[in-house]
Amino acid sequence: MWYVMQVRTGTEENIRCQCQRLISSDTLERCFIPYYQQKKRFQGEWHIQERILFPGYVFLITQNLEKLVESLKKVIGMTKLIGTGDEIVPLSEAEISLITKLGGESTESIVKISQGIIEGDQVHILSGPLKGLEGAIRKIDRHKRIAYLSVDMFNRTVDMKVGLEIVAKNKEKNNEH
Hints:
By secondary structure, this protein is of the alpha+beta class. The protein is built from three helices and 14 strands. The chain has helices at 12-22, 65-72, 93-103, and strands spanning 2-7, 30-32, 35-42, 45-52, 57-61, 78-81, 83-84, 87-88, 110-111, 114-119, 122-127, 137-141, 146-153, 156-170. A hairpin with a 2-residue loop joins strand 7 (83-84) and strand 8 (87-88). The longest helix is centred in the first third of the chain and has 11 residues, at 12-22.
């Protein structure tokens, strides 16, 4: 089961390290923070930087929620595990598959930069983790090479940013209406 812990933005790595250090591996299978890659231009060159995909959240995989909750009391700075009301709710299959699709099967869970083209007012993703998720794209910042997506996560709609490089823009529209 996958759970999500809310933490103060900026403390994600510190909390992840504490969890890995303080919680035994038979209780906590994996603790991770999904990142996304973004291209930034400085000193006249393009560089790939990694940013946290969901700022303020750390992901935990466990089969024993009770033991995990008990162990998390040792972690300094944890806010709460995400759920509804007082009940701690694991991520749904759809949420888990979205995270694994975006981050790939790697244990790093890094959303690589996608490549796409714009035809008229439609975005077509040619390669990368956004392929098939065109419908979730809300906005594209071509200058910053970022796509803004709206996805259902943590029992609500969450906005997230991922790297997207538009390699061509075609103003022509197919008049098939």
